[in-house]
Design a protein that fits this description.
single chain; eight-stranded parallel β-barrel
Length: about 280
């Protein structure tokens, strides 16, 4: 590597932390969390609506969620659509339409994916809902904050699409794949990132999250204890847990200091928050 190139790389990564910390979504979330944990609608209002559809996303935002989470993957021709599973089988009529099981989204073109019914599995009232594109999802959620969970697909391609949609400073992108998150950070220093995890949260993981300037630590509520929650808060990241539905667990997540809570029942959580039952923990 030449001296000039080395200097350029050093400047890029030195600038990344400052740029990431300045994303306006972090200030919105910190301000909102002062009054109690922020409502994150999991795949939209997915208890009552078909997950990862425009109907679910709109319902989540309407229910009072400041943040609406959804999953994205790429089709065979590179388009970004909303889908959680590796295959389309569970939440669309792909098996009936195509006459086979294990229909992967990356085997279908955008046109083929859009021909699937993504709502009828949840009930007749939702028949005709389609797999949304990323652009449609953002339009359904704004001015709430989209929490984009990458399930599969190229980091630079997602960054490029968010740039095209003028959404870099209006979203948070998260993933369980931490090497992918490092690629996303390198591709776009301004992007607000969240790290996802399921096993016991360690100091090493918090250190890595800090190194990539991830402003959100999003963890499985079943493995997060009081000490780990305190460590995450001390590290300066916003703390979120998934996926919490019963009232008693929502109150418990608030009590240990979660800044955000991901739930399938955003209307219920929003009501508890309005009633003052989900109070911000004393820091």
């Amino acid at each position: 590597m030449t001296n000039a190139l080395a200097l350029a790389v050093a400047v890029l990564f030195a600038a990344a932390p400052m740029a990431a910390q300045q994303s306006p979504v972090w200030q919105r979330l910190r301000d909102a969390a002062k009054d109690g944990p922020v409502v994150v609608a999991h795949r939209g209002a997915s208890e009552d609506f078909p997950e990862n559809t425009v109907a679910a996303l709109r319902a989540g935002a309407s229910a009072g969620a400041l943040v609406v989470e959804f999953d994205v993957q790429q089709t065979k021709d590179g388009a970004w659509v909303l889908l959680h599973d590796v295959t389309c089988d569970r939440t669309t009529d792909a098996v009936a339409q195509l006459g086979r099981k294990d229909v992967r989204i990356d085997e279908l073109t955008l046109a083929q994916a859009r021909a699937l019914d993504a709502g009828a599995w949840k009930g007749k009232a939702f028949a005709g809902e389609r797999l949304p594109t990323l652009a449609e999802a953002l339009a359904a959620i704004f001015p709430a904050i989209p929490l984009v969970e990458r399930k599969a697909g190229d980091a630079k391609a997602l960054v490029d699409e968010l740039r095209r949609l003028d959404a870099i400073d209006r979203v948070v992108v998260q993933a369980f794949d931490w090497p992918w998150l490092h690629e996303a950070r390198a591709a776009e220093p301004r992007l607000a990132l969240g790290v996802l995890g399921g096993k016991a949260l360690s100091k090493a993981q918090l250190d890595e999250a800090a190194a990539m300037q991830a402003g959100l630590v999003h963890w499985d509520h079943r493995t997060l204890d009081v000490a780990a929650a305190a460590q995450a808060r001390a590290a300066g990241a916003l703390l979120c847990v998934y996926t919490v539905d019963p009232d008693v667990l929502l109150l418990g997540a608030a009590a240990i200091g979660c800044d955000l809570i991901t739930t399938n029942r955003p209307a219920r959580m929003a009501a508890l928050r309005r009633d003052g039952l989900l109070r911000a923990a004393v820091r």
